[in-house]
Design a protein that fits this description.
The chain is of the alpha+beta class. It contains six helices and seven strands. It has one domain: Aminopeptidase (3-Layer(aba) Sandwich). The longest helix has 16 residues.
């Protein structure tokens, strides 16, 4: 097992497309495409986003994560996280998403947001032990290397306006078609190994 930072632009696009598809599912409408487009068009251009994979001993990706820098560049937030099907090997990797988070938390100042008790429990199992109460019932988990000690000194993660991306799709059909083609091509060319 090892963590791979996907720097090759084609592989990064393919992995991001797969991550968006896995994280949001089949019934998500434009949200996976908007996240794909916003991440590439805003966060990747600003060098504020990283796509990482946990790969097995044969270099096959088993989990993917999108990490985004905070406003001051002192930490990274897990924005998307997904496990990939492991039907090619009977044994597989147990709980690859948690394993990826655990590996990342050991190496980087990591933040995770949990929407419910089940998510929080999964992140706790991954070694995220410091928790803060966020807005609207959100629980914010901090890895051991994260510098924040309270909500007040927790910088905001960089982001983009998803609604604005969807609106731009409606105004600019060429842009929509371009991102849609890139998204589909990414899904079709998802690398078997990294």
């Amino acid at each position: 097992m090892r963590v791979v930072h996907i720097k090759n632009p084609r592989q990064r696009e393919a992995c991001l497309a797969r991550l968006c598809a896995e994280a949001y599912g089949q019934e998500a409408g434009l949200r996976p495409l908007a996240t794909f487009a916003g991440t590439l068009g805003v966060l990747v251009k600003q060098e504020a986003a990283r796509v990482l994979a946990l790969v097995d001993d044969q270099s096959r990706p088993v989990a993917l994560a999108l990490l985004v820098l905070d406003e001051v560049g002192s930490s990274m937030t897990v924005m998307l996280l997904a496990e990939l099907d492991q039907d090619q090997e009977p044994a597989g990797v147990a709980r690859p998403a948690e394993r990826l988070v655990a590996e990342l938390a050991l190496k980087a100042p990591l933040r995770v947001d949990a929407r419910d008790a089940e998510q929080e429990a999964r992140f706790r199992d991954a070694g995220i032990t410091r928790w803060l109460d966020g807005k609207a019932g959100m629980r914010i988990g901090l890895g051991p290397k994260h510098p924040a000690t309270s909500l007040e000194d927790l910088p905001r993660a960089l982001t983009f306006d998803e609604a604005a991306v969807i609106q731009s799709f409606k105004r600019d059909r060429k842009q929509f078609d371009d991102y849609k083609a890139r998204f589909i091509r990414g899904l079709e060319t998802f690398p078997a190994t990294l």
